Amino acid sequence: MTDLLNNWQKKSGDRQKLYKRWLEKADKAPKRNRILEKLPEFHEEAFKRIDCLQCANCCKSYSPRFKTPDIKRIARHLQLKESEFIERYLRLDDDGDYVTRSTPCPFLGPDNYCGIYDVRPSDCERFPYTDEDVLVKRPALTQKNSTFCPIVYFVLEKLMAAVD
Predict the structure, then answer these.
(1) Are 113 and 158 in the same domain?
(2) For the CA atoms of the chain, what is the radius of gyration?
(3) Is 2 inside any structural domain?
(4) Which residue has the higher pLDDT, 4 or 154?
(5) Which domain holds residue 78?
(6) 60: number of CA atoms within 13 Å, CB side?
């Protein structure tokens, strides 16, 4: 598995149908239980091997949902009224969720550091969900995330090899 991450984006693209089939079956016991047992180990291994600051694809191509507590906390941190924060940085998406107006994220710095890291949205804090049951409960999201996040790709590949 030493070359697992070499050319990961192309490999992930080539394996999307396989991921879809595998993830459709992943949330059924007993497979789900075996997957959930392995997640902490593979999540930790992925974060040891992959430096998010070298990538930042999530911030460059993905917008988290900004829930009401996130909006309140971030607006307060930026010393803006909530309505000003929303007007300046957010828009409603097709699902009725607040997301950033633009990509990359307006809080992403040129060094790939987050300008609001300490108060970032809960979606950002939890991303890439590779240590949560979200990985199997939301297969379409996991599949999409595997196309731009090397950690999701890595964890999926490890899981597919270990749990079948």
Answers:
(1) no
(2) 17
(3) no
(4) 154
(5) 63-125
(6) 14
The arithmetic mean of pLDDT across residues 32-39, rounded, is: 95
CB 108 within 8 A of CB 56: yes
Other beta carbons within 10 angstroms of residue 117's beta carbon come to: 11
| Phi, psi angles (nearest 5°) of residue 92 | -90, 135
Q: How far apart are the first and last CA of the chain?
A: 18
What's the mean pLDDT when you consider all of the chain?
A: 95
Distance CA(157)–CA(139), nearest Å, equals: 14
Same domain, 155 and 136: yes
HEC-encoded secondary structure of the chain: CCCCCCCHHHHHHHCHHHHHHHHHHHCCCCHHHHHHHHHHHHHHHHHHHCCHHHHCHHHHHCCCCCCHHHHHHHHHHHCCCHHHHHHHHEEECCCCCEEECCCCCCCECCCCCECCHHHCCHHHHHCCCCCCCHHHHCHHHHHHHCCCCHHHHHHHHHHHHHCC
Q: How far apart are CA 116 and CA 97, in angstroms?
A: 20
Indicate if the pLDDT at residue 4 is higher than 90.
no
Which tokens belong to 77? 């941190």
**Do both 136 and 103 map to the same domain?**
no
Q: Which two tokens stand for residue 102?
A: 């633009």
